Structure formats: C-alpha cells, structure tokens
Amino acid sequence: MYFKINLSDKIKQTCPEFRAGIICATVTNSQENLLLWEEITNECELLKQSFSLEQINQRPPILATRNAYKRTGKDPNRYRPSAEALTRRIVRNLGLYRINTLVDLINLVSLRSGYSIGGFDAEKIVGQELTLGIGQAGEMFHGIGRGLLNIEGLPVYRDAVGGIGTPTSDEERTKITLETRKILIIVNSYGTDKELLETTIYTENLLKRFADANHIEHQIIPEHMD
User: Fold this and answer.
1) Residue-wise burial string across 86-121, b where 16 or more C-beta atoms lie within 10 A, e elsewhere
2) Beta partners for 25?
3) CA angle 83-195-118, nearest 5°?
4) pLDDT exceeds 90 at position 53
5) Who contacts 160 (Cβ-Cβ below 8 Å, separation ≥6)?
6) What is the DSSP string of 76-117?
7) What is the pTM of this model?
8) Nearest to 187 by CA among 46, 38, 61
9) Residue 173 DSSP class
10) Which of 12, 61, 156, 202 could link 163 by a cystine bridge, Cβ 3.0 to 4.6 Å?
11) Which of 160, 130, 159, 124 is nearest to 221 (CA)?
12) Furthest CA-CA distance within the chain
C-alpha cells in the first residue's frame, strides 16, 4: 500500500466497529465523462424513488455514521455526513454539482452505498501514514468549498501536517483536481460493513472504466476485528 492507515485509541474506543476500504491507484482525470453521468443520473432517479427526505438518515450506513458523530461529540444535524448531504440534494431535486470525473465518480459511489467517502490527491499527502482520530477545538481545517470548518468532535484523518478528511468534508490542501495522477480513496464504515468489500471493488471498477486506473491496490482495515 502507498499509505499505512492507523486508528487512534479514541476512535477504537468510541467507534469499535469502524472499518474502511482503502484504494490507491494511478489515474487520469478529466473534466467530465458523459457515460459516467448517465450512471449518476440513473442512480439519482432510483434514490428519488426509494427514499423520502425523512427516510434518508435511517439508511444503515448513514445512520451508523450519524451515531458515530454523537459518540465523538458532534451534532449530525448541523454537520451532516457527506453521503447524507448528497442524498438530500437528490431527493430535494437540487441535483449534483459537476466537479471532475474523479470527484463525480466518488459521489456516485457514496450515493449508491450510503458510505461517506474520502478522496485525496495522494501526492499532496505529507508522509506515508494517516491516522484517524477526533478533531480538536481550534484545529485548522479548510473544507472544500466550505471555508474554515469546525471539526471539533468529528472523526478526522491526519497526515504529518494536519487534518485532510472527515465524513462531512475533505480538506482543500489535498483535494482532487484535473492534475491529480495518484489517488487515495477511503470508504468509511462506522458500523454497517456488510457491503464494504463490494463497494470497494465497485469503486475500483469505476476507476478502471472512467479514469484509466492502473497500479491499483485495495485493502480492508482493520484486517482483524478485536
């Protein structure tokens, strides 16, 4: 693996069922892929048929993430997990922003699975290890498109410099752009990992189809549950 992922003692205590699918790959990004957007449009229509606004936060992966927020000290109604926020946009007929192929692809996986997913430009990460911990008061974190985000009480991945990703938003410093050539994707499961491996493999296949991915490695962590 390109990166070692560590879990802090606090995460192990508050989120004992946490597992994650880790994907590293070399990719080619593009501004837009019309075939990918056909799949996104179909998924959006299915979600609108399947969920009312009130039912979204009861979807098992979303509910598990919300419950994790409560245990780590964050209000999930003020700081919604990204999968919940995306699904709410669809059910409210607001549509999705078109960012770039890699980001759009990650959004598709999140909509389909209900997992909140971190996507990072691997070459912008400092060091070869990430640690999942809990955000502290006053910790600097610039959410993508959100400005300064209060991550106190949020689960947060940190590299050697600081926070790069939470289930609510990733950080500007390591965001995916059209120049991204190496990607790290983390599929986060806070208690419902029944479809975690399937979702990880699905993501890998999308990367191959729409981003010419190669040198792909994936892993489920932790490998053994205590």
Assistant:
1) bbebbbeeeebeebbbbbbbbbbbbbbbbbbbbbbb
2) 183
3) 40
4) yes
5) 126, 127, 129
6) TTTS--HHHHHHHHHHTT-------HHHHHHHHHHHHH--EE
7) 0.96
8) 61
9) G
10) 156
11) 130
12) 44
